[in-house]
């Protein structure tokens, strides 16, 4: 029993010694750190440049954000902040720059005091490199382009849209340098993904931003569509031979072709034969060795969808 008590007593003394040693070590480390940080150092730091008050009709033409290098002097305490965050300063185009040909020119060493205020009041700027920065500019241009709907819509069985999608507005002004907007032919919406649709569509879609150097006159557009119940219909349409030379007689079969289509229930009775036209081109057989015509649907009623010819060959005999 006495040995156990003695052992615990010795162990507690050792633990106290370790704790005391740890505290002395920590104090020594903190003293060394404070003495280091209280000294003055010189260090180079990268500084990004942000443009403000740039004329509205002009744009800076550069592939990347400009960066300058500032050599600063400060206590170690104050230099620590530069290790943990990026630093950006503003260049005021209404005060700090001058125009030279197609460039704006900025001489940063003229504005050390102003830059110093934006960085930190506890540091002193010794040198800024480069000593002169050039910002190439272009006058902004504008071009109107169509808006294209990017959609993946699956309808409930028997349903479809009537009269297509209506996009309002259907175009957008793209604003930017002439070089950049010359590449733009259209602007897509963000994807519209819908499934099992059986009711009318009425949504707002943002426009897809694909170039950070360009701006749009609008940010979004409205997409609407009437969705209705559709049914299948069929109709017989006479076949017409076109480009037949004078004096040539052609006997062909069939003389009419059945067309299948989908149509909304409301428009079912409004589908007429005159809304369709099927043609066979005589030049097709004249320029080849084919023994049949390939019928083509050259006119389709605007109120039907998914139109199909029930026959894809028209046999013929030339009559001398």
TrEMBL record:
<dbReference type="InterPro" id="IPR012505">
    <property type="entry name" value="YbbR"/>
</dbReference>
<protein>
    <submittedName>
        <fullName>CdaR family protein</fullName>
    </submittedName>
</protein>
<dbReference type="InterPro" id="IPR053154">
    <property type="entry name" value="c-di-AMP_regulator"/>
</dbReference>
<dbReference type="Pfam" id="PF07949">
    <property type="entry name" value="YbbR"/>
</dbReference>
């Amino acid at each position: 029993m006495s040995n156990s008590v003695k052992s615990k007593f010795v162990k507690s003394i050792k633990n106290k010694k370790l704790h005391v040693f740890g505290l002395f070590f920590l104090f020594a480390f903190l003293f060394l750190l404070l003495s280091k940080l209280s000294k003055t150092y010189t260090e180079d730091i990268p500084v990004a440049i942000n443009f403000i008050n740039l004329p509205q009709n002009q744009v800076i033409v550069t592939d990347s954000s400009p960066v300058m290098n500032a050599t600063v002097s400060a206590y170690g305490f104050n230099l620590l902040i530069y290790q943990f965050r990026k630093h950006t300063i503003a260049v005021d185009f209404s005060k700090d720059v001058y125009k030279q040909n197609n460039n704006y020119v900025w001489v940063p060493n003229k504005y050390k005091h102003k830059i110093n205020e934006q960085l930190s009041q506890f540091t002193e700027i010794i040198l800024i490199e480069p000593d002169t920065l050039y910002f190439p500019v272009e006058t902004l241009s504008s071009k109107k382009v169509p808006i294209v709907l990017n959609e993946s819509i699956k309808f409930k069985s028997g349903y479809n849209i009537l009269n297509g999608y209506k996009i309002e507005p259907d175009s957008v002004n793209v604003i930017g340098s002439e070089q950049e907007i010359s590449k733009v032919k259209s602007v897509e919406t963000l994807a519209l993904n819908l499934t099992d649709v059986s009711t009318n569509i009425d949504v707002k879609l943002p426009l897809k931003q694909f170039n950070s150097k360009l701006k749009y006159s609008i940010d979004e557009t409205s997409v609407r569509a009437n969705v209705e119940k559709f049914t299948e219909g069929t109709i017989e349409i006479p076949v017409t031979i076109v480009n037949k030379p004078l004096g040539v007689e052609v006997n062909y079969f069939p003389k009419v072709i059945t067309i299948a289509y989908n149509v909304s229930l409301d428009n079912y009775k409004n589908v007429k034969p005159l809304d369709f036209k099927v043609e066979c081109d005589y030049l097709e057989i004249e320029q080849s060795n084919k023994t049949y015509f390939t019928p083509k649907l050259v006119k389709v009623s605007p109120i039907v969808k998914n139109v199909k010819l029930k026959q894809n060959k028209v046999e013929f005999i030339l009559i001398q």
